[in-house]
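Page 37, top half.
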Amino acid sequence: MGITEDLASITCRGAVIVGRNLSIDGHENNRLRVVTHAHSDHMVDIVESIRNSPKIIAHPATFEIMEILGVTIPRDKIYKVNYGEKIDLRDGAIRILKSKHILGSIQILYTMENGASITYTGDFKDPGGGTEIPESDIIITEATYGSPDYVRPFKDIVEELLADLVSQLLSRGPLIIKAYYGKQQEVMNILRNYGIEAPFVADNKVYRISKIAEKYGLRIGDILLKGTTEAEEIARQGWYIYFTHTTARDLLNNAYGYKYTIL
């Protein structure tokens, strides 16, 4: 196979080292930095990469979300990639593969000059559906949910179950959905696809990321920025869904009158 430890490894800081030129989802000096998606555990040491990496590689949507989250990449460091794109390196080439996780998520397929290959999946779900499964000699993958205990017997109907639950709760009053950035927009898209038309209300970051998601084809529909006259009017009417981050504590006083929370 011709793949040695120095060509496929993980550092103590969590950087995935692939080949002689790439550092993925973590920093290593003088290597190209790949960000597979805009979640904090995959942007570890991004400031170091801004300082010391020749380029930072990510999907265009990831760069846009990172900017909203306060991570500004200098223009001369940005290298935007799209699904299916191939990049030639000194010791081989990488191909960008789609990963179903959040908007902009990618996988990296690295092929050496001798034909040996390494895939780093990043976070994903729905393998063989929304997530490509490449032929590869070595696969480096996340193990957060690696146990078979996490295989859901109802995974094929989970979106329908979510939509049914939201519909039931909306019949009793407004509700709040707390999720990570990117996952919020996935839920919005699911609810719209299942015919839930209740207006969404969101704080500044969630609202701006939702507008980016809409630009890339997700169905967001009627969404209002928290604190605006329109959002306050919707709150008085009492039929809406408020989206915020998982860690948000700004609604503990129940100022918007929500009755149920979905995490």
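Page 37, bottom half:
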Amino acid sequence: MNNAVCTNRPIGFLCGVIVAGMLSACAMEEPSKLPPNASDLILLKSAKLCDQKPAVLSRLAGVPVKREVWGTGEELRIPADRSATGANESFFFDQDDQLVGQLFIFPSAVDLKPYPVLRETLGKLKPSLEFYLNIAQTSARESLDPSTLYETGDATSTVRYLVLNGDPPMLLAASFSIDPYAKLMSPYRAEFLSRIERGDKAKGGSKPSGKGSTDREAFAALQQFSRGEAAHFGSCGVKDDARAADAYGKAIAVGFSDKAWLAEAHHKLGLALERSGKLEPAKAAIQKALTIRPNTAEYLNSLGTVYARLGDHAQAVAAFERAVTLRPNYVVARFNLAEAYEPVNVRRAIAEYETYLALVEGVEEEQSRAARAQERVQALKKH
């Protein structure tokens, strides 16, 4: 059985399209699904995402590092005059000592004129947010400075640039994070904006604008949920179901006020337990998610998968039927329904496989599963 798992890309990402010319000797390149992200301003010098804390500290030997609590993890801060980039650098580690985010704040802002590749990238990106800031670095300007937040990244990480508009544009801050922690690493978070904006009246500054995002949920819950996602999706190269289950469980223990967050935490806990072979606890977790959000097709598909592994074909069929009733074009649940019908109703299995094949015709991502469906239809028709 298959669970539908969406990639954990941040909201607002656009699929890039490469228009290839007609080349007689070369095949057309496949369009990129990632936004432009090239940069000639290299910031990840002392460490890279997913590094372990002891290795990072070893590279920073001799550099003054301020260590601060960051929820259940830790933030390492390096002043601009001692950092390799000329920025106030922050390294954020989760409770497992894994580097999940980096933040760079430039005290004097960085003129982007010498960085044509980054300027070209920013020019291709749609602004994520435009707003005004009180910037200490630009005391000669107006009291409020127009700024733009840009978002890009690659398959597993999110990169954000906070740019002061003008000619030339000036880089105020940049952040890098593995995708599950993107929400906690945005330069637009209020606590990070307060590090950027001026607030020293003795230096001619004014009070910060008070802008910036704040969390509606407990930071500890969001941090543990992010930790669970990183382990669930293998953001650092290896999936860890035990760590994912531990993190989702801790997030639930802290609590969410939003029912959607709470339901998803129970659902993801169920997925982690199911992948670990703990089927009865997995069933209980997913059923809990369904008590919070009863008509969620993804949860029903996951529950059907657990029932199928438990050998309860009747309950599996019932769960998958409900999933496709709610979402008739839910192709993964449709395939799973066909599989679940095989031991109990061959004709229905064939019908569901054929419906699935009609739905996924021409869908590249479903080629492998479609080939399996075609094989099963041929085999079942012989009996």
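Margin note: The beta strands are 66-70, 73-78, 88-93, 99-111, 129-133, 145-153, 157-164, 170-178.
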